[in-house]
Amino acid sequence: MMRRRDFITLLGGAAAWPIAAGAQQPALPVVGFFSGRSPDDSARYGAAFRKGLSTSGAIEGQGLMVEYHWLDGQYDQLPALMADLVRRRVTVIAGIGVPIVLAAKAATASVPIVFAVADDPVGLGLVASLARPGANATGINFLALEVVAKRLNLLRELLPKATRIAVLVNPTNGTTADSTLRDASEAAGALGMQIHALKARTVGEVDAAFATMVRDQVDALFVGADAFLISRRVQIAITAARHGIPTVATERDEVEVGALMSYGTDIEDVYRQVGDYTVRVLKGGKPAEMPVQQATKFEFMINLTTARVIGLDLPAALLARADEVIE
User: Which of 112, 205, 248, 320 is exposed most, by the fewest CB atoms within 10 A?
Assistant: First the structure.
């Protein structure tokens, strides 16, 4: 299934909403957690979120309950899911990704929202300012878009003669897709590169995008920040290697399965930060007064095996700067 909904509680070994006829104890606070990632990623990133909860003094099932939604980059049911949580008076909504947070903001002006987004939260209308958000939402800006130029500069170091760069985005994630294409075009222009914009929201459209890349003889592929594209990272890495297309991505997960390199935020740490901020809200913090934090941990990853497969000799200086080289 493209969508799964996991509701986890550990209270007395039962999995149930904390409302019962004649119950003597108050209901535990409930966090509605949303991620655009695949359910296959739930163990790793759910654990990072729970680490943020526990290090801030909250244990799932003992002081709060969490209802998990792993959307696999499919966002069409978000309005209904958010309306349902608001109707049931969930205590906090925690969401990673622009479509999720925009849907939460559209659904409620009163339920606290803790977010993590790649785009500028002020520009998105989520907060009035980073220092004083001013409404019911605050969280983490993980700066995926701000490092677009950095990724293209790394690509220039790797491929000094590259001029035709395919940029793959998911049109369903429209705000981030538009920002990625705009920022990539500006950065590429300064480097003498030309951007070939390609869009994919399904497995078949990813294959079609590669057919276009081969036809147009692009020199490299830039994969935009998007949960669906990350969920298709194996497909993208294998197909790129088959056609000898060097690929620069946003996260280490993509390099671990075969993308050539990535530069971006440590996403596990972002999930941990969201868990931490969620507990602060549960303890009485007001999102309106809690400054938006910015991600501080970045990773530069290179897959040396992939470089050998596609016949690239990597500059020694570039390898020396990498945080991790996968062989």
Answer: 320
